[in-house]
Amino acid sequence: MKKFQTTCPYCGTGCNIDLFVENNKIVKAEPTKEHHVNDGELCLKGLYGWEYVHSPRRLTKPMIRKKNGEFSKDGDLVEVSFDEAYDFVAQRMKSTVEKYGADSLMGFSSARCSNEDNYTFQKLFRTQGTNNIDHCARL
Ligand code: SF4
After folding, report:
1. pTM for the model
2. Topology given in CATH for the domain delimited by 2-54
3. Is Metal-binding there in the keyword field (predicted)?
């Protein structure tokens, strides 16, 4: 079993967690001992909120709403490749910034992403010229 130290993403407190991984699955979480933020304590979310990571109901492939093979807000969700999804998002972000300016973009991230994922996400938006970033833990 391997141990990975990370920061709990569920709220802004920043508790440090040791995640224990076996066969590529998180099997338990413990508070990082003697850490200056949480000093060996975690709330229930930090201790037990990790089952979703391996849930079979989790989306693992990108999807785009399409009608007759083209994007449509009224279309059905169609599974696409990551390359197609990245191209679609990049093109939509670019055309939106060109038409309305960088502050017309807004990124809303998730507590169900790792701290490292959230860092990368905010970087993506800031490099487009906007600070319009938020996270569901603030709701
Ligand atoms: S363990 Fe609880 S208090 Fe600490 S960061 Fe996570 S959600 Fe916040």
Report:
1. 0.71
2. N-terminal domain of TfIIb (2.20.25)
3. yes
